[in-house]
Amino acid sequence: MRITENDKTITLIAGGRLTPSEFAKLTINEKIECLLHLNGSNKASMILDDSNPELLIQTLPMWDIFQIIHEVGAENAIDIFQLATPEQVRFILDLELWEDWTISVEETVKWIEIILSTGEANALRLLSEIDQELLILFLKKTLSVGGGLDDIINSEDHQGDWDHTFDEIFFLNIHDEEHSELTLKFLEFLYNEDHKLYRSLMLGAESELTSELEEVAGQFRAGRIADEGLPASIDGPGYYARRMN
């Protein structure tokens, strides 16, 4: 591949890459063209060494962001993920969280933990960018909710046997003990930092049907996947392996 800038030509040898100083001299379009020819780990290194990594990340195609995340591992790509656009975040989770026509609790737990590890401000931003139906679906799969804003005084839920409550309004029974610590950490974070979102998720988890949540969240996902020219039934990791072979 040859990249030309201001009558200077830099040749990328197969399997090699530009030095950070050489890369820094390129225009944004040339940088993106260069990145498209690198594997995920080399992409990540070049991006994070750049003076404006956020611009590079947010300019990359959706699939290339997923490639980085998949190749270096979600836990090692936090710096990339937290600079992504809302559309990129949703695309990554569309490919990472779903198994057939519902979400994987294990994968969702992993990604919520990653999001919470990015720091308060980033975590709030990232969580606000995820479809609420998906977050409610995760809660429906891990706990049950009683109480609610209309039943603060006379609700029989106050006399029930519940595992936890943050506010004496919503009451929780944990069904997934394996992930209970992370689930409660997630809800406590929202209760303290974004009470509006916390309340919305609690109301949804109490009243929404799992089948309807799967249908609506699945439709949102299918639409976004279709916009990228991918099949609605895509298995992200499996499709990636086939595509790269």
Summarize the structure.
The protein has about 240 residues and is mostly helical.
Helical residues, percent:
55-70%
Strand order of the largest sheet: 1-2
Mean pLDDT: 85
> What best-fitting shape do the alpha-carbon axes yield?
elongated
Low-confidence stretches: 1-15
Largest sheet: 2 strands, antiparallel
Strand content: 5-15%
Work out the helix count: 14
Rg over C-alpha atoms, rounded to the nearest angstrom: 21 Å
Topology pattern, helix = H, strand = E: EEHHHHHHHEEHHHEEHHHH
What is the number of strand segments? 6
Instruction: Give the structural class.
Output: mainly alpha
Gap between N and C termini = 21 Å
Question: Would you kindly provide a written description of the structure presented here, covering whatever features stand out?
Answer:
Helices cover about 60% and strands about 10% of the residues. The protein is mostly helical and about 240 residues long. The strands form three sheets. The chain has a two-stranded antiparallel sheet with strand order 1-2. A two-stranded antiparallel ribbon has the order 3-4. Strand 3 and strand 4 form a beta hairpin. Helix 3 crosses helix 5 (about 60-70) and helix 10 (about 130-140) crosses helix 12 (about 195-205).
